[in-house]
Each structure stands twice: as C-alpha cells, then as structure tokens.
Amino acid sequence: MRDDVAPTWRDADWSSAKLLPQPAAAPQAIVAVYAARVGRWRGIFAHHTWIVVKEEGADRYTRFDKVGWGSPVRTNGWVADGRWFGNPPQPIVLIKGEAATRLIPQIRQAITTYPYGRAGDYNAWPGPNSNTFVAHVMRSVPELGAALPPTALGKDWQPFRDIVGLTPSRTGFQVSLGGYAGFSLGWVEGIEVDLLGLVAGLDLRRPAIKLPGWGRIGMDPVL
C-alpha cells in the first residue's frame, strides 16, 4: 500500500481539491462530472465517479453520488470537488453557462429515475454501482458528450435483458454481458473491450489509449 494513502476511511482527506470556483465568484450555471481513485488497493484498478450541478445564481453546488451504504443515492454527502479517500478528482465533464442551464433539469430528472437507487441495489462488481449510476445519467442526457474513464468499473453494466444497445452518448452501439464482458464502438466512447470489468481501447475523437488500471493515456477528456 502506498505511504500517502490513509489506512482507514476516517483518516482520509475528503477536503476540496479547489477545482471549482466559489459560487459567488461564478454566478453562471455549472455541470461537472468527476472521477477519483477509490481507497486502498482497489485504487489500483478503479475510480469512483459523481455528478455536480449548480443552477445560475445559486449559492451552492449540489453533488450526487451512488454509494453502497446508507442512502444509496447521496446528495451533498461530500464536498462538490472533494478528494475521494485522499485521491484528487479529475474532471470528466465541465459545462458552464446556457448549455449547463439547459442540461440541469434533465440531469435532475435522470437522477430521480435511476432504477437501482434503493437500499440493497448496490453491487460493487460487476454492478450496478456508483459508476453505473453516473453512466445512467449520461445515457439519459447524451448532450453531456463524454465518456467515463476505462477504470470506472461498472460503467458498462446492463441487465441481461439489455445485452445490445446504444452507447451512453448515443453515437454508437454497445454489447454488455451483465458487466462481465462487453464491447463498445462510438464516436464519443471510442473503441472499448471489457473483460471482467477491465477495459482497454482507443479514443479517436480526443486521441488516447485506454488501459486497465492506468486509465487514459493521451489527450485530456475535457478541453
């Protein structure tokens, strides 16, 4: 285990990574999706993802996470741009202004319709889990126009009745065998092969290689 990783949940740093401006300094609407490595040895393989919104003129951000304890869909359980088990988050989506204003009602609606938001619905692997939740929102709001990192285990989970479908961005197709194996081909998602939750592939839109454990190597997903 790395020396800089807290030994327990209680000892970890959950403070702001200072990625978002103070609401008073940024009156415009903001939508963000963040990903951060999970705690301890699992961080070698996996990221946790969450969603942040702020309406125009609002005095605070609202953060949404799917977790496996307590309230399954947590609102403002942590700082909007906070570290996760001490690991700094990376932006996957960052949209501001009028575009964010248009998307926020759709995002809030997608959160309320998440079909696996009850206690007992969480399954760390292969899903549905925290990343399945964020993927559901991105699938419901394809205008977000982004793909979760290959280390967001559970992002490709679909029930066996939905083996073949569109990618979350609706720019391609996806095959998912209950999260145990799968394949995606889309303009936003690129080419991805999933085996037991380990994803490898290529991003052609914003050139990068996707590797299990490493994540993206190449152009930043947020311009």
Quick synopsis:
The chain has 223 residues and is of the alpha+beta class. The chain is 12% helix and 29% strand.
SSE topology:
Layout (H helix, E strand, L loop, with lengths): L29 E8 L9 E8 L7 E5 L6 E3 L14 E7 L1 H15 L17 H11 L23 E3 L5 E5 L4 E6 L3 E6 L2 E6 L4 E4 L3 E4 L5
Antiparallel strand pairs: 1-2, 1-5, 2-3, 3-4, 6-7, 7-8, 8-9, 9-10, 10-11, 11-12
Helix pairs in contact: 1-2
Task: Describe the 3D structure.
There is one protein chain. This protein is α+β, with helices and mostly antiparallel strands and 223 residues long. Helices cover 12% and strands 29% of the residues. It is built from two helices and twelve strands; from the N terminus they run βββββααβββββββ. The protein has helices at 98-112, 130-140, and strands spanning 30-37, 47-54, 62-66, 73-75, 90-96, 164-166, 172-176, 181-186, 190-195, 198-203, 208-211, 215-218. It has a seven-stranded antiparallel β-sheet with strand order 6-7-8-9-10-11-12, with no helix packed on it. Strand 6 and strand 7 form a beta hairpin. Helix 1 crosses helix 2. The longest helix has 15 residues, at 98-112. The chain is globular and about 45 Å long. The mean pLDDT is 92.
Features:
alpha+beta, 12% helix, 5-stranded antiparallel beta sheet, 223 residues
**Major sheet:** 7 strands, antiparallel
How much of the sequence lies in strands comes to: 25-35%
Number of strands: 12
Overall mean pLDDT stands at 92
Percent of residues in helices: 10-25%
What is the CA–CA distance across the termini? 33 Å
